[in-house]
Amino acid sequence: MPSGIPSPMPTIFSNLLVSVLLAGVVAKGATGPVRADDRPLVFAADEWCPVNCTPGSEKPGFMVEIARAILEPKGYSVRYETINWARALLYTRQGHYDGVFGALREDAPDFVFPRQPMGQTRVGLFKRADSPWRYVDETSLDGRSVGLILDYAYGEDLETLLEKRTIPSYQGGDAPLDINLRKLAAGRIDLVIEDVNIFWNKAEDMELRDQFELAHVFSEEDIFLALSPAKPHSAHLAEVLSTGLDQLRASGEIDEIMTRYGLDDWK
């Protein structure tokens, strides 16, 4: 190229670069918001159906469905895994998971909690249907063995009562509720404490529903999708979840999700 004549190559490359960048913007705009971090959000918990059920199933749990209904339209990819509760808390605290489904504030007070709960638990006391025992007051619990789940929070008042009055029997592992129901049915423990909906759902699955009765309801507690204290985006996600709940409630989508599980909006 003779000197003094400007080369057209930079202009050609500049135009190509602009075209590529514009194409990328259009592509991104066509698929909705794109996160700077393309890794999926991974939430974990032990199976606690109908709050969180079998991953990959048609009904993975109402809290799983609500989280996806809020987060996926905003460009997030959501994955749900089951693991025993103690490990779910530990690994989320360490930052291996982004959050846990179905947490009470007492389960993990150091986690990041949205302003709004994503459900409610009714803590019930269950016995065998053929047992003559009845709950009258706190003294009725004296000396009774009670099936509980390791690292679950039952509320400070109830936990104090159980330590004072009963013989707690803690079960860990990957299927602790299944084991507690079998132990109750076999007479190896006297009582089980569990969320009312969770207990009946599990008893139905195990074909044991007619063997048990609800003896008493202790309390109602809010439950949350609690977020990892080790993740820098947790505070932002908490606000996204809270705002999203208002939007789902206004649109009626929460009612649609809860109806799929035979439940009503907890609010």
Automatic annotation (TrEMBL):
Keywords (A to Z) from UniProt: Signal
InterPro entries documented for this protein: Solute-binding_3/MltF_N (IPR001638)
Residue span, Solute-binding protein family 3/N-terminal domain: 47-262
Protein name per UniProt: ABC transporter substrate-binding protein
SUPFAM superfamilies cross-referenced by the UniProt entry: Periplasmic binding protein-like II
Entry annotated with the keyword Signal: yes
Species of provenance: Roseibium aquae
